[in-house]
Amino acid sequence: MISSMDNIKKYKKLKAGLNKALAAEMGAFWAFGGHTDKEDDKQLKQIIMQVRLDELNHIDTLIFLLKKHGVRRNRLREAAFELIGRTVSFACKFFPNHRINSVASYMEKLGAANYRELAGYARELNLPYVEQQMVWMWQQESTHQYFFDKMTELYNAK
Length: 158
Ligand SMILES: [Fe+2]
Ligand SMILES: [Fe+2]
Prior knowledge:
With about 160 residues, the chain is mainly alpha-helical.
């Protein structure tokens, strides 16, 4: 049947998407370490630290969902993204604040779009719990994007 073949494909895409998202979140978590250190303003630093904690929460959620759906984690990809994240974290020392925040905003935008797409698959597959988690993370990444847009504006105005 076409529809069930379709669903098998969607389920595969959903699982692969969750696995890639995990590696990306790990990269983000490491990258935000350097971003936090770079920020001198106490209140802004608090916000970036909170964002970083949100990403840690997303990592937890994704690990849980992958386990629940029997997906094997791609440790090599995770290690690659950790390396990228640590490199970005270090590179923050050499880039101006407006640039760092605009890159962060762009990455958050990609993350939000990805969770939005995965929420759609979960919805079509009638997996309400997964859908709820994807919508929640989509919403959080959008909020992160908003913060980084505001910070970019702030530093551009200086
Ligand atoms: Fe995240
Ligand atoms: Fe985020």
